[in-house]
Amino acid sequence: MKIGLVVDSSCDLPRSFFENDDVELMPTMINMGDRSFEDLRNDEQTIQFHADTRARMKQKKEIEVESSPFTSSEIEKLFLEKLVCKYDHVFCIMATHARSDIYDHALKASRAILIKYKPIRREAGITGHFTLAVVNSRNVFAGTAVLAAEVVRMIKAGATASVIDSRISELVDHTYCYLVPPDLQHIYKRASQRGDRSITWTGFMLGSMLDIKPILLGHLDNTSPVAKMRHFDAAVETMFANAVRAVEAGLLAPAICMGYGGDPAEVQRLPGFSRLKAAAAKADIALHIAPMSISGGVHTGPGCITVAFISDKHDFEEKV
After folding, report:
1. Which domain holds residue 148?
2. How many distinct structural domains can be found in the chain?
3. Over the stretch 10-65, which tens digit does the pLDDT of each residue have?
4. N or C terminus: which one in the chain shows less Cβ crowding within 10 Å?
């Protein structure tokens, strides 16, 4: 049985994963000013987007940017034209339905795909059924990526679809994704546009004056602050320290995924990263670092750093 994995472009896996024969990308449409383009997770394009956004913010030049996930009809077309003949079973790991419509769109498309695939496979001379599973990662960005990385590892190890399905069900509830956005104004503006009141105007003004940066946690369909620190570096170091403790306690899957709103080479210089890198190497944990997706950058702003892991022993601590 040939097993494949589909993720949308908000999933912060390194580009090398998408060059793997088992991983397919579902692009997100980016609407920026008077032009539109697909987020195809091209590193050069993505890094340039973050740099351009940073430059516009410094110059106080506003350009309206929105991201739009694949529609159910676009997902259906992708599968029927390409994937139902390439794979026998596909896992679709989607961003949390609390933050994106992509999971609902994929679920709707799956019903039509399973009705229409048979004559397509038959015409191609392929016997046997085609099946797919649509998974709500209950997370975002690197949180979706760390689940996807484990699925890829299991596919390469020869695991069956049923074993992988059970494994995903076990891991979703134990997936943690931490985010530190450097620009509170960007986060406040985007939250206000979505009707999210987790950051009030008073909180934004006070936080800006005191240079307070939130550490956000994506977990179980919810993304909210777990701490507020003075200065970006302190928040990042605290976030990485929590990842180190999770590694030392033992992870449920041997991977950590990170996304950065810029050139990933800059992550090496962030406070606490070298300690996390050493802990991961000692525990034989793969460390995957990718540019944060363009669609992710639309919501978090340039320079946002995320780290995600899967653990059943983790509790956040506000210490380094």
Report:
1. 3-29+69-172
2. 2
3. 999 999 999 988 999 999 999 988 889 999 999 999 999 999 999 988 887 777 88
4. N
Tell me, what CATH number does 98's domain have?
3.40.50.10440
Mean pLDDT of 219-232: 93
- For residue 307, what are the contacts with CB-CB under 8 A and spacing of at least 6? 142, 177, 178, 239, 240, 243, 256, 257, 258, 276
Considering the domain boundaries, does residue 40 fall inside one? no
Q: How far apart are CA 45 and CA 42, in angstroms?
A: 5
As a whole number of angstroms, the distance between CA 167 and CA 71 comes to 28
> Is residue 179 assigned to a domain?
yes
Does residue 101 surpass a pLDDT of 50?
A: yes
Cβ atoms within 10 A of the Cβ of 209, count? Answer: 8
CATH number at residue 251: 3.30.1180.10
To the nearest 10°, report the CA torsion of 232, 234, 238, 240.
Answer: 60
Rounded to two decimals, the pTM is 0.93
Same domain, 289 and 151: no
Residues 152, 13 share a domain: yes
- The answer to whether the CB of 27 falls within 8 A of the CB of 40 is yes
What percentage of the chain has pLDDT greater than the value 70? 92
